[in-house]
Design brief:
heterodimer, A: 791 residues, N-terminal domain of TfIIb, Rossmann fold, seven-stranded mixed beta sheet, six-stranded mixed β-barrel, 27 helices, 28 strands, 28% helix, globular, disordered C terminus, B: Alpha-Beta Plaits, three-stranded antiparallel beta sheet, two-stranded antiparallel sheet, 4 helices, 26% helix
């Protein structure tokens, strides 16, 4: 056998392998997720990306890769990719375009923006970017520093309900963010001899199928690594995930009731005296109030609410509280309820009262490596207070005035487009986001609203339904291997180096520079994206980062900062350098004084979802299933990877929803049947897959579906509404903090698709017949529930 | 020298398809063809109330044991990319010994 190939190239960032150049770097969306795994790119003599392999030296993914990065060349070299700027020549929705030069595109943008500045003011411009796109730095920067608008937001993600509710809860309660400790902060990873890391005895996977979703810079298979080192599992999920099947306790929670479950676990831990007395006494504030609040949440009561056996709640509470250390890896479903803030506070309380705080194998406090904090807030502070005050969402003081949100509130942006109150929105910019196909709740409502906006720019990888329906200009975006970049999301710091180019595609930084130089050149002094990166490394990052330019950084690829456990004991968290947490009381605030200050409940509370068997029994009679949406698939990242002929579509050709087979048989349905999923807001169709692990009262449906192989022009619009589960979810129904939206706790009925009931498909109904959720209640701007779907 | 074998510790196979896709790219096979194919059992409730939910990556007739990659000093494409680190490649005896330490495992030894 020859010499170990990987050993022989250790420390090299680029080398030759036959006819190929191999480049060691990292990757993040788009395409694919934003975890930032280490890759080896194989490019040929013409610079074409031929193959992607995992970098075995990168501690983050340790050589492994998921299928989406392995198939990346299918997207990078896809013949249906956008390659040139285009302007619309037909009506919106006709999918007729004329190729133009970048200069012409910039002329159009400049003219429109200057006219809006003059007639309406910069706040009339709104910009969005899809999750994790090139670190989310540049489009916010462009919004604030080129357009001069305070209105950057996540594109119509109702209640900003992806990590933002949890991060706000953590920030208000602890002054910092927690993550499950899987040794990801150490370059040596699972090395218990040379790091302080210890394998968790128990891992709770709550509200996300971690191995599939890889959410929030957490590589889900780290949990499997820990299981192989002896960690036991507890899983909270309405369906039996692979992790649930390997769990000591699986809590099959009714969607949207996680707060009740968490409060019952707190109840058991307090009642049975399983809490960490020393930690609670020294470092927590409001323990007695918390316990009192949870007093009524006996396992029996929670069991009734959550549809879980009381013994399992007790078993989970005991197993978790008695393990030292134990950790909780939580996910999206905590956010996707109107009760998101309280749910997150309750789960945060669990790791606090058990003393699993910033200890090896617990939930650790993490900050961005080398103090680099750009992202959604990048250059926001340069706006005047008067302009900042115009940011949409000011009706939610925790988000706006207390500053727990770093963007405009998504639902408020939608409402403002619809009502022109407090001011009209004249221009919407969307980079790598496809809201009517993906996360925009009440997609038909969104369709109508965005259709009314005077000027829309869509910048993306492919021609999407969003681009066809709304765009006046379509700008081609570079994919990951076509970009130079750098980023911090927690740890490590990583660089990304460009290895190929597709047509005239540009990265977010290059695009922001082009636009910025036209509008506010003083804020965009850099020649190109690399100069901007160098500026960030030199001036917006602390001095400990070992490289100061991309040229140096690309060779090192990543850098891990020092990490310390128990930072609260060492005076490493507070601005005054004293011990404790960065909160008003210096403790973890189980009784949350920040929330109290802004007029919210300082303690967790359970609230029934508005559409549920108990809260809306009349609706439940008509729609007898609890509907949860958005479970992840290995094949897709959100609405990406749907292109025909790719490996992802080969393995997952159709949108699938799941029911318990007994429930399905009661309705005369067979596995594989196309069915309508319908509620008072609208309907969509997906294919039935039996899942015997589901409660027979619960249905799970997929999100993000469109069909790029079908007609792009309306009425079909790539079939974007046909299987769109967001025909059934509401906008502008948030928690009182503004955070959270009920994506994952709706009601529905199921019936088989027939020729007779499928004559009018949802895409036709929405685009041609003004269908679904069209009735807005003028009193409060909401959709009139129950008056929206009358076919 | 003994034949090389693939050991699959399928207690930890999450069914993520990474091995399938890595192998498709290595073999350059098209739609519907696999050098290794992930089979699924479950989720299924057992008589005692526990749940069975397993995946087993099954090498097909197209598997070439990554002979070319191994000759270059690389590892097998499926083993390299498995996010669960549940696949191993080496001499059949070593793989059999490793399998004996596992709860659910399979050893694949191709007959030339």
């Amino acid at each position: 056998m020859s010499e170990n190939y990987y050993e022989s190239h250790k420390g090299e960032w680029q080398w030759q392998d036959g006819d190929y150049t191999v480049t060691r770097t990292t990757t993040w969306s788009g395409p694919g997720c934003h975890d930032g795994c280490g890759v080896l790119y194989y490019t040929d003599k013409d610079g074409k990306l031929v193959k992607v392999e995992g970098d075995p030296d990168n501690p983050f993914n340790q050589g492994t890769l998921c299928m989406r990065c392995l198939e990346m060349p299918e997207y990078v070299n896809n013949p249906t990719r956008l390659g040139h700027p285009m302007k619309r020549v037909g009506e919106r929705g006709e999918n007729k375009w004329e190729e133009i030069s970048w200069d012409e595109a910039l002329d159009i943008i400049e003219e429109k923006v200057r006219a809006i500045w003059k007639d309406y003011g910069p706040e009339a411009i709104v910009a969005h970017v899809g999750t994790g796109r090139n670190n989310n730095d540049h489009i916010p920067y462009m919004t604030y520093s080129a357009f001069g608008s305070p209105n950057f937001s996540m594109g119509y993600l109702a209640g900003d309900s992806c990590f933002c509710p949890r991060s706000a809860s953590m920030a208000s309660m602890n002054g910092d963010f927690f993550i499950a400790d899987m040794s990801q902060q150490f370059e040596k990873r699972y090395d218990e001899e040379n790091t302080e890391w210890r394998c968790p005895e128990v891992i709770v996977n709550w509200g996300c199928n971690a191995v599939v979703s890889n959410s929030d810079n957490f590589f889900g298979h780290w949990i499997v690594d820990c299981m192989q080192r002896g960690a036991k599992m507890i899983t909270v999920d309405p369906a039996l995930t692979w992790l649930a099947a390997r769990s000591e306790v699986w809590l099959r929670v009714r969607p949207g009731t996680d707060a009740a479950l968490a409060m019952a676990m707190i109840h058991v831990i307090a009642e049975e005296d399983l809490y960490d007395h020393d930690f609670v006494e020294k470092w927590c504030y409001g323990f007695d109030e918390l316990v009192e609040r949870c007093q009524e949440w006996t396992p029996e009561k929670a069991a009734e609410v959550c549809w879980v056996e009381p013994e399992k709640i007790v078993a989970a509470a005991r197993l978790y509280a008695q393990a030292k250390p134990a950790t909780i890896q939580w996910g999206l479903k905590v956010d996707q309820t109107t009760n998101a803030t309280a749910t997150a506070n309750a789960i945060n309380a669990l790791w606090s009262i058990t003393g699993n705080v910033d200890v090896p194998g617990g939930n650790i406090i993490i900050r961005n490596a080398y103090q680099q904090n750009l992202s959604y807030g990048y250059s926001y502070r340069e706006l005047t207070p008067e302009v900042q005050a115009k940011r949409l969402g000011s009706e939610f003081p925790l988000m706006s005035r207390a500053g727990y949100s770093s963007s405009a509130h998504a639902d408020s942006v939608l409402k403002t487009i619809e009502t022109a109150d407090p001011y009209p929105i004249r221009m919407v910019w969307m980079t790598s986001t496809n809201p009517i196909a993906n996360m925009g709740a009440d997609a038909p409502r969104l369709y109508r609203a965005l259709r009314s906006v005077d000027f829309v720019v869509v910048n993306d990888l492919f021609m999407t339904p969003t681009a066809v329906a709304f765009a006046d200009l379509v700008l081609p975006a570079a994919m990951s291997p076509e970009r130079n970049s750098q980023r911090c999301w927690w740890v490590p710091h990583r660089t990304m180096v460009k290895v190929t180019q597709h047509e005239e595609c540009v990265g977010d930084d290059e695009l922001a520079l082009m636009v910025g130089k036209r509008l506010h050149p003083e804020n965009f002094p850099w020649e190109d994206g690399v100069e901007w990166i160098d500026h960030i490394l030199q001036y917006e990052t602390d001095d400990k980062l070992p490289y100061k330019t991309l040229e140096e950084g690309k060779k090192q690829v990543w850098s891990y900062p020092d990490f310390e456990y128990r930072k609260y004991e060492k005076g490493l968290l507070r601005f005054d350098g004293g011990p404790g947490f960065n909160t008003p009381t210096g403790r973890i605030e189980l009784y949350n004084t920040n929330m109290m200050l802004w007029g919210y409940d300082a303690l967790p509370e359970f609230k029934e979802p508005s559409c549920s068997p108990y809260e809306s029994p009349e609706l439940y009679e008509k729609y007898p299933f609890v509907l949860t949406t958005g479970a992840r698939s290995y094949e897709f990242f959100h609405s990406e990877h749907r292109q025909a002929g790719t490996t992802s579509r080969e393995m997952h050709p159709n949108p699938m929803f799941e029911m318990n087979p007994a429930a399905a048989e009661n309705l005369g349905l067979e596995e594989g049947d196309w069915c309508w999923i319908e509620n008072q807001r609208g309907r969509c169709r997906q294919k039935l897959r039996f899942n015997p692990s589901l409660d027979d009262r619960v249905v799970r449906a997929e999100h993000g579906w469109w069909f790029p192989e079908t007609e792009g022009a309306e009425p079909n619009l790539f079939g974007v509404f046909d299987s769109n589960i967001n025909n059934l979810t509401p906008q502008c129904e948030n928690g009182d903090t503004g955070f959270g939206a009920p994506y994952a706790n709706q009601l529905c009925k199921i019936y088989k698709c027939t020729e007779e009931n499928s004559k009018v498909m949802p895409s036709y109904h929405v685009t041609m017949e003004d269908g679904y959720s069209k009735d807005i209640d003028e009193a409060n701007g909401d959709v009139k529930v129950g008056k929206t779907y009358e076919r | 020298m003994s034949a090389n074998a693939l050991m699959i510790d399928y207690e930890f196979c999450t069914g993520c398809h990474a091995c399938e896709v890595a192998c498709k790219k290595h073999l350059e096979v098209g739609e519907g063809q696999y050098g290794i194919h992930v089979l699924q059992d479950g989720p299924r409730e057992l008589p005692d109330g526990r749940w069975e939910y397993n995946f087993l990556p099954m090498p097909t007739s197209l598997c070439d044991m990554c002979a070319g990659r191994i000759a270059e000093g690389k590892d097998a494409a499926c083993v390299h990319h498995c996010p669960a680190h549940c696949m191993h490649y080496g001499p059949a005896e070593e793989m059999a010994a490793l399998a004996a330490e596992k709860t659910k495992s399979a050893v694949f030894v191709p007959v030339a």
